[in-house]
Automatic annotation (TrEMBL):
GO BP term, example: mRNA splicing, via spliceosome
Source species taxonomy: Eukaryota, Viridiplantae, Streptophyta, Embryophyta, Tracheophyta
PANTHER family in UniProt: LARIAT DEBRANCHING ENZYME (PTHR12849:SF0), RNA LARIAT DEBRANCHING ENZYME (PTHR12849)
Protein name according to UniProt: Lariat debranching enzyme C-terminal domain-containing protein
Alphabetical list of InterPro entries matching this protein: Metallo-depent_PP-like (IPR029052)
Any one GO molecular function term: RNA lariat debranching enzyme activity
Cellular component terms (Gene Ontology): nucleus
Native source species: Gossypium mustelinum
SUPFAM superfamilies: Metallo-dependent phosphatases
Length: 170
């Protein structure tokens, strides 16, 4: 059913589970994955907020001043669903950068354009811990995140059994 379709006169809300947003754009939902040909794509939507992370999906339309901000926060149970995928994925999508991603790249160019990121990295406030856990568990070949609105390239080496393997996430 397409976005905005009516079922028994009511709008169908696909915001949680995902669905077709337009004919050529598929929303994975708050946490989901799809297989496109031989490519497995998984994603975690939202911005990490420690206060709301462990709360359930309590927001309901129409949103008020508090819920309009919290409705798009990452929830623990959404990350938990993806942690139970048994197969590795090829591409991981997240709104927030994975926590600690700056440890896997040269940050000089980043700091030249986003000076405040240096303080956030030193304070341990840059990035999403659940996205980092999913990156380590699912070991995707590629990870794309957009929250910080700049290009930043990193290469994460994955370890298995205490030794570095040839498994990388770019």
């Amino acid at each position: 059913m397409e976005s905005g379709a009516k079922e028994d006169g009511k709008c169908v809300n696909f915001r949680y589970y995902g669905g077709w947003a337009t004919p050529n754009i598929y929303f994975l939902g708050f946490a989901g994955f799809v297989k496109f040909g031989n490519i497995r794509i998984g994603g975690l939507s939202g911005i990490y907020n420690a206060h709301n992370y462990c709360l359930g999906d309590h927001e309901r339309s129409p949103y008020n001043e508090n819920t309009i901000r919290s409705v798009y926060h990452v929830r623990e149970y959404d990350a938990y669903k993806l942690m139970h995928l048994e197969e590795l994925i090829d591409i991981f999508l997240s709104h927030d950068w994975p926590f600690g991603i700056a440890d896997y790249a040269n940050c000089n160019n980043l700091f030249a354009t986003k000076k405040h990121f240096k303080d956030e990295i030193q304070q341990g406030t840059l990035g999403c811990k659940p996205a980092a856990q999913l990156l380590e568990k699912l070991k995707p070949s590629y990870c794309f995140s957009a929250q910080l609105h700049c290009k930043f390239t990193a290469v994460v080496e994955h370890e298995e059994g205490g030794r570095v393997t040839i498994s990388y996430t770019r």
